[in-house]
Amino acid sequence: MHNDLLVIDGLQYSNWDREIFQQLHDGGVTMVHATIVYHEQIRETLSRIAQWNRLFEDNADLIMPIKSAADIHLAKQQGKVGIMFGAQNCSLIEDDIGMIEIMRELNLMIMQLTYNNQSLLACGCYEKIDSGVTRFGKQAIAEMNRVGMIIDMSHSGEKSTLEAIEISSRPIVISHANPTSFYPAKRNKSNLVLRQLSQSGGLLGFSLYPFHLKNGPDCTLQDFCQMIANTADLMGIEHIGIGTDLCQNQPVSILDWMRNGRWSKQTDYGEGNKNNAGWPRPLPWFRDSRDFPNLTRGLQEIGFHDTEVAKIMGLNWLRFFENSLSARS
Amino acid sequence: MHNDLLVIDGLQYSNWDREIFQQLHDGGVTMVHATIVYHEQIRETLSRIAQWNRLFEDNADLIMPIKSAADIHLAKQQGKVGIMFGAQNCSLIEDDIGMIEIMRELNLMIMQLTYNNQSLLACGCYEKIDSGVTRFGKQAIAEMNRVGMIIDMSHSGEKSTLEAIEISSRPIVISHANPTSFYPAKRNKSNLVLRQLSQSGGLLGFSLYPFHLKNGPDCTLQDFCQMIANTADLMGIEHIGIGTDLCQNQPVSILDWMRNGRWSKQTDYGEGNKNNAGWPRPLPWFRDSRDFPNLTRGLQEIGFHDTEVAKIMGLNWLRFFENSLSARS
Fold this sequence. Notes:
The structure is a homodimer of 329-residue chains.
Chain A (H helix, E strand, L loop, with lengths): L6 E6 L5 H9 L2 E9 L4 H17 L4 E3 L3 H10 L2 E7 L10 H8 L2 E5 L22 H13 L2 E3 L5 H10 L5 E2 L16 H9 L3 E4 L14 H15 L4 E3 L9 H9 L31 H10 L4 H19 L5
Parallel strand pairs in A: 1-2, 2-4, 3-4, 4-5, 5-6, 7-8, 8-9
Helix pairs in contact in A: 8-10, 10-11
């Protein structure tokens, strides 16, 4: 069945090269939302995009940029892996609302309002007090709604997330996280958030990052798929997808950059700790993108019908993008 | 006749506001190549684009961005003024070849390799010795050819201009200048350059900036149109257009910015001098964009047929853009 699916991965931050593109292709992935920046500012973000442009030029037989929802169909048709740009923090717009449209013109389709910490727009899930969406944040949400840039609250606090769902005139996403009821990581989401998300037309991408899973790297495929089944009952089958959070072949220096950016002189270990400071051990049934067929199989084995599997593996994301990327006047 | 024409102005740098857009509309202009930056670097250029995005939003009934040659036809059809972004220097890419594609993605369609001075890419027309296109310049020309960004040598030296024509695999433009044989300003171009330009498929836009005209602000419409007739004999009727260089409602501080950027502590007076440091007096027959019909009339009176007038007033530019803006793999 897997080869017939249109598979979308709602988030990866891998150390992109031809080998990884080939693995995505071999795993049957039609499109991946690729994090291109965390704490990079405007100028640095343009350098990241320039690096991607070189990758597109050098690997044109294998990958293509996603500039519209129609391009996802084109990627499927041509058997290429579509790359959708996203940001895991709002540093790339600095303090300038005009940069939202400019980044969207450069095909940056998804932006998190925060990455763990307080940002200029909202509050991250690691702060003690979440005071919600800021004054700038409200303006930014309206502008993102206007130009067709998707709001992602994966790393945000509960209050900020609920407010973003409420304030945004278009559905938002949590591209890579799991329910707190499955595993109580700070990054996972309460049933209240998940219900509000689905009721507003939003989408949750299930994370395969071991820190977000029950039993960590020893989480079984069956437990993971049972979590999906339980969440489908809570949110509805239309509002869930996959967002692996795969960080393949990344050095520990990247983990430090994600966790510490330029903001901390003391080492922040994020979801790890001093004695467990590195990347987590990979799941034996999801080592890299070639293991996507295991997810399809797991979903079938837990009892999902083929039409439901197709929605979870990609069609829900596809429908979401079809409704979210056009500009509004 | 004027109202039936598709009129293109190959360069303006006005102090853009709704009044000026209305004047362009009233003058029957379908598209204007608008200089958005001189010496602005990457971050500053993004701010200029953000300002333009606000202008597009606030004046959507009157203007529209030109993102492809097809958009020029759309502007004509909808009776709007199309705005094509251009740069009069290469500061906006700094020292980074990757920024060419990024600026092109932001609809920057035309870039001068130099503005009077030596740049990282080539030599300007005010330097004593023009050593031609630089190593970086050769790479930049190839990249501009690839992504469909037009090379403009209006402010470049003779050797650099001849080399750019030779090196570029696609035709280039001199968007706003006149023949030296008409008036020997440093900014005007030799017959050798003009012949090479036309033989390579390029285009010259005739300037209405008084510093480029015989008798300056007292140049007559008839003399101007006779110059066009003589140049048509030299270059061929297909290779000429209009590039007014209109700088309407600009304060003197902008003239200083154009001439001095950040490079000089002493005041450089450019085409003026200490006793004539300001903007030139406007031509009585071309005070602003509402006077475009005078050009049409002048060309008819000098003896051009209507089909020739249509080419000079816009169709040559249109054809040039239709061949120049697509990417090449």
